[in-house]
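Input (structure):
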C-alpha cells in the first residue's frame, strides 16, 4: 500500500516578529496594550527574525538535497510568508520553489482581545479572563476569536489536503505557535491535558523545526512519527525564543 502521508513533514514557527518584540516590551513595562498598529496579518519579521529565517535556510542548505522540502505551505500572514521566502532564498529549498499559502494555517484569531496584554485583558475584559480561567485555554473562545478547538477543526481539513496531494513528498509548513501545537495534537492523537502539558514545558521557539517522518510500521497502515521537536538552527539557539503568545489569552504569536 502506498503511503498516504508525506515522507517527511516539517512544522516551523515563523521567525521573531515586530509584534513579538512589542508584546514582550509591553509585558515588561506592565502596559495594557501592545504598541503596534495595523492588522495582525501585516506584522512583519523583526531584524532578528530575518536572521533566524536565513539561518534556518542555511542549516537545511548544509544538508543533502533529499533532506530539503519539495513542498512549502505557509500561513498567509506576512511574518510567516517572509520566513518561508527567506528560508528558501537562503538555500533551504530549491531556488524558485513555489510557496503555497493556505488560510487554514493562519494565526489563532483573538477577537476583542487582540493587541491586549494580560494586564489589559484583566482591566478591560475581566469577564473574559474569568471565562478563560473556568473553561481553560483549550476551549475558551473570546468574542470574535477562536479557541484552540476552532484552530484544530480547520487544521484537520488542512491535513486532509496534505495527505491527498502530497503523499510521499517532503513537506514544510510555516505557521504560528498555536498552529504547531495544534498540529501535534492531531498528528499524535493527543488529548487536552497532554498538549497543554507540552505547552507548559516551554515556548515553541521562533524558526524552530518540529519534524515527523513516515514510518510504514506505525499503526495499521503506517503513520507520521515525531522525530524531533522545537529544534533550532545552531547559530541562533541562544536567541530564538520570544515569550509564548497564549499564556493567558493569546495575542499575536
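Output (sequence):
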Amino acid at each position: 500500500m502506498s503511503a498516504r502521508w508525506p515522507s517527511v513533514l516539517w512544522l516551523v514557527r515563523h521567525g521573531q516578529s515586530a509584534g513579538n518584540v512589542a508584546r514582550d516590551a509591553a509585558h515588561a513595562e506592565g502596559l495594557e496594550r501592545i504598541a503596534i498598529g495595523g492588522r495582525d496579518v501585516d506584522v512583519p519579521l523583526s531584524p532578528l527574525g530575518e536572521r533566524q529565517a536565513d539561518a534556518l535556510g542555511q542549516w537545511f542548505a548544509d544538508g543533502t538535497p533529499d533532506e530539503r522540502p519539495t513542498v512549502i505551505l505557509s500561513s498567509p500572514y506576512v511574518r510567516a510568508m517572509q520566513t518561508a521566502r527567506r528560508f528558501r532564498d537562503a538555500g533551504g529549498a530549491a531556488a524558485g520553489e513555489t510557496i503555497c499559502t493556505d488560510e487554514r494555517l493562519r494565526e489563532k484569531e483573538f477577537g476583542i482581545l487582540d493587541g491586549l496584554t494580560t494586564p489589559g485583558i484583566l482591566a478591560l475584559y475581566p469577564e473574559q479572563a474569568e471565562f478563560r480561567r473556568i473553561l481553560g485555554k483549550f476551549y475558551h473562545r473570546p468574542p470574535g476569536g477562536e479557541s484552540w478547538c476552532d484552530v484544530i477543526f480547520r487544521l484537520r481539513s488542512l491535513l486532509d489536503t496534505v495527505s491527498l496531494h502530497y503523499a510521499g513528498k517532503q513537506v514544510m509548513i510555516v505557521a504560528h505557535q498555536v498552529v504547531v501545537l495544534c498540529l501535534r495534537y492531531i498528528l499524535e492523537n493527543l488529548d487536552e491535558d497532554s498538549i497543554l502539558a507540552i505547552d507548559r514545558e516551554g515556548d515553541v521557539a521562533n524558526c524552530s523545526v518540529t519534524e515527523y517522518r513516515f514510518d510504514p510500521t506505525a499503526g495499521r497502515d503506517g503513520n507520521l512519527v515525531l522525530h524531533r521537536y522545537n529544534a533550532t538552527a545552531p547559530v541562533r539557539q541562544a536567541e530564538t525564543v520570544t515569550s509564548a503568545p497564549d499564556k493567558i489569552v493569546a495575542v499575536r504569536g
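Notes: Residues 8-239 form a domain with the Rossmann fold fold (CATH 3.40.50.1240). The two ends are 39 Å apart (CA to CA).
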